[in-house]
Specification:
The chain has about 60 residues and is of the alpha+beta class. It has 2 helices and 2 strands, in the order ββαα. Strands 1-2 form a two-stranded antiparallel sheet. It starts with 6 loop residues before the first strand and ends with a helix. Its EC number is 6.3.4.5. It comes from Xenoophorus captivus.
Length: about 60
């Protein structure tokens, strides 16, 4: 956190129509996510990663809504 790793400042459009600003700090989560994505590059081909990303977006929309 001291070096800004894992700090994100975002403005979200909420489902109910209002905007919300959030500042999140997750240095450990950011490092783990980047490591996981790097491992996926070695173990999955381009098409499988594209399908996984699309399913992840759809799943997160369903959970959020």
């Amino acid at each position: 956190g001291k070096h800004g790793v894992g700090r994100i400042d975002i403005v979200e459009n909420r489902f109910i129509g209002m905007k919300s600003r959030g500042i999140y700090e997750t240095p450990g989560g950011t490092i783990l996510l980047n490591a996981h994505l790097d491992i996926e590059t070695f173990t999955m081909d381009k098409e499988v990663r594209r399908i996984k990303q699309g399913l992840g977006i759809k799943f997160s929309e369903l959970v959020y809504n």
